[in-house]
């Protein structure tokens, strides 16, 4: 068997393994979420455990217990507080949603009438008639939205996340180096160094992005919530929290939060000064994110273009839901490293160099 055939078989084997893993993840996506969350938590906390184990008196199991318990003692009260606040504000929002839509439609009608008075050619009469029935026509949409939201919350298995994820995180933290060592032992000796170098590159990208982006989301969510609360926007804390939470998708978090806040401020106040205050909150937030938070915490040289990250997150969400969005960035990083390796290999090949 010549070298070309061996390489072909190797690539076919890798492709087959990737297809099997992808198929299993898709088939088991409904039960994988708590396990993946546990692995992600372990990945985040592994550096802290490594620092503790530098002390020869502290074993890996003891360090894992200390770090994980400390993490849970900090995280659980915050999650409980945010959960209670979110449930209260979501319930209030759903209860008043028909009134919000009706009020928003009424203000839009007034604005349209004013524009039509001064610029009759801009808005035809039939469009004004459509807007006149805005509140009534939107009621079926409101009922559908309420149903989607209530079903979405029912699909989240909170019990499995609270019970299984910490256990998975503990064992992954304790045995992290054993797992990675066994995986490295399975790599053919000829390609081991290339795979290790690629794994280090992927780890650098993932750690730089995930840990940094998590801090960016927390800071942005806190800033937007405080800013919207400061301008006295009802449900502003919830909107700011949502905007910060989904800020890991480039531009989507800020745009979504801005649109929700604009709808709410128009509904609740409808005055230009209040609208400008909301606009100012998001402009300052975007300035802080673009000039300080993202460059300092995430870095600009992690090797993942924002468009590629956005595509990966949306594609993962479509294919696997929340699970897909969690693993989207690691998968995107792996694909990026593989593509760079393939391009480098191609540029050194006879096909590229031959004139």
Q: What is the straight-line distance between the termini?
A: 29 Å
By helix and strand content, what is the structural category?
mainly alpha
Number of helices: 15
Element order: H for helix, E for strand = HHHHHHHHHHHHHHH
For the sheet with most strands, the description reads:
none
| Rg on CA atoms, Å | 26 Å
- This entry's quaternary arrangement is single chain
What is the percentage of strand-forming residues?
under 5%
Mean pLDDT: 77
- Quick one: how many beta strands? 0
Unreliable runs, pLDDT <50, ≥5 residues? 148-156
How much helix is in the residues? Answer: over 70%
The best one-word shape is globular
Key terms:
355 residues; mainly alpha
Describe the structure.
The protein is mostly helical and 355 residues long. Helices cover 85% and strands 0% of the residues. The chain has 15 helices and no strands. The protein has helices at 3-27, 29-52, 60-118, 125-132, 134-137, 139-155, 158-174, 176-185, 192-230, 236-245, 252-268, 272-298, 306-320, 322-347, 350-353. The two termini are 29 Å apart. Mean pLDDT is 77; it is low at 148-156.
Summarize this, please?
With 355 residues, the protein is an all-alpha fold. It contains 15 helices and no strands.
How are the elements arranged and paired?
Elements: H1 3-27, H2 29-52, H3 60-118, H4 125-132, H5 134-137, H6 139-155, H7 158-174, H8 176-185, H9 192-230, H10 236-245, H11 252-268, H12 272-298, H13 306-320, H14 322-347, H15 350-353
